[in-house]
Specification:
The complex is a heterodimer of chains A (about 180) and B (about 110). Chain A has about 180 residues and is mainly α. Chain A folds into 2 domains: about 110 residues, Orthogonal Bundle (Rna Polymerase Sigma Factor, Chain: A), CATH 1.10.1740.10; about 70 residues, Winged helix-like DNA-binding domain superfamily/Winged helix DNA-binding domain (Arc Repressor Mutant, subunit A). Chain A has 10 helices and no strands. In chain A, helix 2 crosses helix 8 and helix 8 crosses helix 10. Chain A starts with a helix and ends with a helix. With about 110 residues, chain B is mainly α. Chain B is built from 5 helices and no strands. In chain B, helix 2 runs antiparallel to helix 4. Chain B starts with a helix and ends with a helix. Classes of the chains: A mainly alpha (about 180), B mainly alpha (about 110). Chains A and B meet through helix 2, helix 3, helix 7 and helix 10 of A and helix 1 and helix 2 of B.
């Protein structure tokens, strides 16, 4: 956790909107990436990311400095996503065609087959496993940080990441 | 790192959100303002209801006061009505700022 982040949260506690703006700018990418992969639907994920930042604004005092600010935000996002899990599951198939055909291939990006295979395989993982894989392999959190965010034992998170990674690798291998 | 692992890492990091997104920040701020507005309106409604309740409970006392006031009854009634309208509105910071600015302009033109 950087001193800047601590200063931002302290300022937010005192009602500084400028600090809140900076916090959103600095951490929106990580929280959105986590929820995009976890929920598999960008518009809903963005909506939930916005709610996450609103919760961070109203509950800034709940940040105790035990985890990084990014970890704290992802923890809020995780609790919101888990709470809404059922309705997301019902809507999972929505807009699939749009999502899958969304990004054209360009130089430097991985092949479309790989991206689709990983996306499909990720969505097929159980919810908690998907969260653990996303936090560790996409957002770059350590296993212990991910365990803190998910409120799960370290061993469970390690096993989730290992198994999830194996499944993703298998899917990529099959897509070639 | 094997070729498969490299491909997996690249695929996982593809199609991510942009590092900076002014539009997203704007949407968060809009929602923050909406939430704040809803909270303020709810608080204003509660305060107005409490004031109304206090007035209803003390109706006999107010009636007695008004009867004793005689000719001043209209002024007192106007002052009471103005208070019921102004006090809740003053609880909203933007209204408060407008009132303070108006008074300041009136005092120091």
């Amino acid at each position: 956790m950087t001193d800047d982040d601590v200063a931002l949260v302290t300022a937010i506690r005192n009602g500084s909107e400028l600090a809140f703006n900076r916090l959103v700018d600095r951490h929106q990418q990580a929280v959105r990436a986590f929820l995009w992969r976890l929920l598999g639907h960008e518009a809903d994920a963005d909506d939930m990311t916005q709610e996450t930042f609103l919760t961070a604004w109203t509950h800034a005092r709940s940040f105790r400095g035990e985890a990084s600010v990014r970890g704290w935000l992802c923890g809020i996002a995780w609790r919101k996503a888990r709470g809404a899990q059922r309705s997301w599951a019902q809507q999972r198939s929505r807009d699939t065609t749009y999502q899958e055909g969304r990004s054209p291939e360009s130089a430097g990006t991985p092949p479309m087959e790989d991206r689709l295979a990983v996306r499909r395989a990720l969505q097929a993982l159980p919810f908690e496993q998907r969260a653990a894989v996303t936090l560790c392999l996409v957002c770059g959190f350590s296993h212990s940080e991910a365990a803190g965010i998910l409120g799960a034992p370290l061993g469970t998170v390690k096993s989730h990441v290992l198994r999830g990674r194996e499944r993703l690798l298998k899917e990529i291998e099959g897509s070639a | 790192m094997t070729d498969l692992e490299t491909r997996l890492t690249a695929a996982l990091h593809a199609d991510g959100p942009p590092a900076r997104d002014a539009m997203f920040r704007l949407k968060v701020l809009v929602r923050l303002e909406q939430a704040r507005f809803r909270r303020e309106v709810a608080r204003t409604i509660v305060v107005a209801m409490v004031l109304g309740l206090v007035a209803a409970v003390n109706a006999p006392l107010i009636e007695g006061g008004l009867a004793a006031a005689g000719q001043d009854v209209r002024i007192i009634a106007f002052a009471a009505a103005a208070m019921v309208c102004v006090v809740p509105a003053l609880l909203i910071p933007s209204s408060r700022r407008t009132v303070v600015r108006g008074v300041a302009r009136w005092l120091y033109p």
